[in-house]
Specification:
- Helices cover 24% and strands 25% of the residues.
- The chain is an alpha+beta fold.
- The protein folds into two domains: 59 residues, no CATH class; 103 residues, Beta Barrel (OB fold (Dihydrolipoamide Acetyltransferase, E2P)).
- Strands 5-4-3-7-6 form a five-stranded antiparallel beta sheet. Strands 8-9-10 form a three-stranded antiparallel beta sheet, with no helix packed on it. The protein has a two-stranded antiparallel sheet with strand order 1-2.
- It is elongated and about 70 Å long.
- α1 packs antiparallel against α2.
- The chain has four helices and ten strands; from the N terminus they run ααβββββαβββββα.
Length: 184
């Protein structure tokens, strides 16, 4: 495979297909395990899946639905998992996130009204969330969609205010990239 490679997580899908195989085996003692064949070719312009079965079952339909949800575009997953104050796992969509900051060796994710903690590092979160997130300092990543205002200060530093009231400073190092993302 040339260019960008996409890691596709198909373990849940294979589990569904195994369930299909097991149910078929219960119905037909001659049924074999599910066979998986992957073909990588530069001639294929759009990924597609083909399933062969002797009958359509609910489990097979679930497997098809799972296949239809797989993103083969090479884009990162568009959610992150974080922990709340009770260490419950919370799944966040990018639009829910206002600011991500490294604070005292923790990665803190700020939403509209919540402050959550991630076990991932800032650069990992940045890579996963996509282009609407921009790093403004060594320790801070912001969602461009939630900027309220930007105020120039002295020495080429700018103060940023988010729509939820959070404030931070855009360092000189990250200012050119920030301006480029805003089209300035």
């Amino acid at each position: 495979m040339t260019g960008r490679q996409k890691r596709i997580t198909i373990a849940p899908l294979l589990s569904n297909l195994k369930t299909v195989s097991d149910q078929s085996a219960a119905n037909d003692q001659k049924a074999a395990d599910v066979k998986v064949h992957v073909e990588i070719s530069g001639e294929i312009t759009e990924p597609y899946f083909v399933l062969h079965a002797n009958t359509m079952t609910e489990e097979l339909q679930n497997a098809v639905s799972d296949l239809e949800q797989i993103d083969c575009t090479g884009q990162p997953d568009k959610f992150i998992t974080v922990f709340d104050e009770n260490m419950r796992i919370v799944v966040l969509q990018p639009d829910e996130i206002f600011l991500v900051r490294s604070e005292q060796s923790k990665t803190v994710v700020y939403c509209q009204t919540r402050k959550l903690v991630s076990k991932r590092r800032l650069f990992e979160i940045k890579a996963q969330l996509g282009e609407s997130f921009v790093q403004i300092s060594k320790s801070t990543l912001i969602n461009l969609k939630h900027i309220d205002s930007v105020e120039p200060l002295f020495n080429s530093i700018m103060k940023l205010k988010m729509k939820n009231g959070l404030e931070d400073y855009i360092s000189r190092t990250y200012l050119p990239a920030f301006k480029k993302h805003l089209g300035l």
